[in-house]
Amino acid sequence: MRVVIVSSSPNEGGLTNSCVQVCRDTLEKSNVQVEWIVLNHYHIQKCEACGKRGWGMCLEEHKCKMDDDFNNLKEKIAEFDAMIVVSPVYFYEMSESAKTFFDRLKRCESFDENWKLKGKNMLCIACAGGSGDGTENTLNSMKILAKFLHMEVVKQVGVTKLNFEAMKSEMVEGTKKLMLGENHERS
Ligand SMILES: Cc1cc2nc3c(=O)[nH]c(=O)nc-3n(C[C@H](O)[C@H](O)[C@H](O)COP(=O)(O)O)c2cc1C
């Protein structure tokens, strides 16, 4: 089994990366292959809604006309058996790098019969500041993302710096549930 972690914080020493580390450790202890993609490291432009009625080639060709890192990343992510999405909470939502990437991914893959992550598992983690305000909304956006990607949400975890230690077990449990998608395993 291979799991991709997609995170979206520019802050190397921040809470988002600490949460990624918890998931990585759990996967590696179980000898699961894991790859970590930090969206902030890529050049991904915002969707132009380029067609006349709001759809471009994304609707029928399931890729984007824009020449940046998006199409390659989309192809790369599709090679995994499950995905963990970890985003900071910015203004009650996923961070901009996550929104920009996932906006385009939803367009390309919500009507793609051959989308390889269809029916695969997703773990959602939102990393907030002290108040934790907006965590619920962010997790809900991730759930909507999973709906349009036709993926199954195994768990949603809201984390703040104050509850990080307490939420570790939730993240470990979610990661283990993700690994239970054995029927999705590819040789
Ligand atoms: C632009 C911006 C907007 C933020 N908005 C919220 C918010 O709506 N709710 C919240 O609880 N924290 C908010 N925060 C705090 C971050 O969610 C928090 O610092 C989180 O730990 C950031 O992730 P990081 O540690 O990986 O940088 C915001 C931070 C930034 C930079």
Q: Can you describe what's shown?
A:
There is one protein chain. The chain is α/β, with parallel strands linked by helices. The protein has one domain (2-184): Flavodoxin domain (Rossmann fold, 3-Layer(aba) Sandwich). 39% of the residues lie in helices and 21% in strands. It contains 6 helices and 6 strands. Strands 1, 2, 3, 4, 5 and 6 form a 6-stranded mixed beta sheet that branches. Helix 5 (135-149) links the parallel strand 5 and strand 6 (152-160). Helix 1 (15-29) packs across helix 6 (164-179). The radius of gyration is 16 Å and the shape is globular. Bound molecules: flavin mononucleotide. Flavin mononucleotide is lined by residues 9, 11, 14-16, 88-92, 127-129, 131-134.
Amount of beta strand: 15-25%
CATH superfamily: Flavodoxin domain
Number of strands: 6
Quickly count the helices: 6
Bound molecules: flavin mononucleotide
- What structural category characterises the helix and strand content? alpha/beta
Main sheet record: 6 strands, mixed
As a whole number of angstroms, the C-alpha radius of gyration is: 16 Å
**How many independent structural domains?**
1
Q: What is the percent of helical residues? A: 25-40%
CATH architecture: 3-Layer(aba) Sandwich
> Which CATH first-tier class would you pick?
Alpha Beta
Low-confidence stretches: 183-187
Please trace the helix and strand order, writing H or E for each element.
EHEHHEEHEHEH
Rough shape?
globular
Q: What is the average per-residue confidence, as pLDDT, rounded to a whole number?
A: 95
